[in-house]
Amino acid sequence: MPQYLLSLIQPAGPVPPPEVLDPIMRDVAAVTERMRATGAWVFSAGLHAPETATVVRPADGDFLVTDGPYVEAKEHVGGFTIVEAEDLDAALAWGREVARATTLPVEVRPVANQGV
Asked: What CA–CA distances, in Å, run from 82 to 5, 38, 108, 110?
């Protein structure tokens, strides 16, 4: 079955306070449980802030390693979920559920060359 990446687009800035974040995390857990119950859930994870990233670039037969995100931006990928869905419409339905739970944009993208 085709797999899709649901990327959570998070604004830069501090983590919301518990009174804001706790209900969101409860809603996200409920969506994840529905995904698991239907067999759609494959894998999901949150990511640390972009400033924790390290970038490795090929450079003249060697590699340049730099601290920080690849691109400075006001938004970044804050987490992701891989789902199995019959088609794009089904994946978009999961994307809408995640967006509703998180109140954030979710990019839905098919996974290429699965299992390679």
From this structure: 5, 14, 10, 10
